[in-house]
Amino acid sequence: MSEAYIVAAARTAGGRRNGRLSGWHPADLAAQVLNALIARTDADPALIEDVIMGCVGQAGEQSNNIARNAVMASCLPESVPATSVDRQCGSSQQALHFAAQAVMSGAMDIVIAAGVESMTRVPMGTPSILPYRNGLGSYVSPGMAARYPGVEFSQFTGAEQIAVKYGLSKEQLDAYALHSHQNAIAATRGGRFNDEIVPVAVRMADGSETGEMHVADEGIRYEATLESIAGVKLIAEGGRCTAATASQICDGAAGLLVVNERGLKTLGAKPLARVHHMTVIGHDPVIMLEAPIPATQRALQKAGMKIDDIDLYEVNEAFAPVPLAWLQTLGADPARLNVHGGAIALGHPLGGSGAKLMTTLIHALGQRGKRYGLQTMCEGGGLANVTIIERL
What we know:
The protein is α+β, with helices and mostly antiparallel strands. It has helices spanning 26-41, 66-72, 91-105, 126-133, 142-147, 155-165, 170-189, 226-230, 261-267, 292-303, 321-330, 343-346, 353-368, and strands at 5-11, 15-16, 50-54, 82-85, 110-118, 200-203, 209-214, 250-259, 273-282, 312-315, 372-379, 383-391. Belongs to the thiolase-like superfamily. Thiolase family. Its EC number is 2.3.1.9.
């Protein structure tokens, strides 16, 4: 079987809700990343055999196969097909898995895996809310309700359950959130993101352009202190999580160009990394955010590795309890986790986050001269993907 190599990885800087990317149609924003992948490899756009794009809010401007719409807004020719993937927050990490599987099988040689989400223009939960407005029912079917009687499938509830189960105090969550901002600040000021970010014009929600380029993640709180974080209101009375210890609503896009050996020769490209292992599991849909723990355990076992073999980890910061519980259970080194900050500081553009985290992981490994990286993220419904890469 062929190997899967990543030859280019790029992302936009994150934009706050109603912020510097809010004027971008999501298909056009994603197209900027597709164009950047082509430019960075000097590839013939017609050689791309498929575009697989993650997106969670597939409604409104992100409906009707956002992946194909992004292709039609990009430099890629009409001959390039595209499909959209929804594995909730892991959508573009799953896009990478599908792209890797395609080139490893030999069915294709050159594939783009990408993701996009405009949480300003298509607010979180839009596809679930629309049926109610038309007098229709919930996504929770009678069969689901019978299997899980009285259960509210909520990521907020899951985050609180994890905090309780793993004995994580509010003070620990607050301290972790501050650390995320501190890492993101250091990475930004140190130019760690420069090579991965695709500059795009600032476009505000009212359609105005400032003439500036958006080149830095907008969500970072440079003024954050432990006191300011601790003072944020609890999400649920008696709980431990707040908006300050949860991922930020974010607009953004990211992408990866994935090839096999034939693709490498065709493009004349140098690989950045090799996909070493891929895992996806289903887990408890009630405490749903816990899934990265057993998923990582399974991935390491299948790959014949130990957590200490991994040089850097990217564990999505949907809520602070998720990476903290993961660290605790895996016995992982906190100094290797989300070294450039995570979604608490940088934002979580839902369907775009998988490709975004992988882009940051690849560049961080290169900057530090490290070999193995592991990425995982919790996903709605109790799912989790794990990807282990080897930097080349």
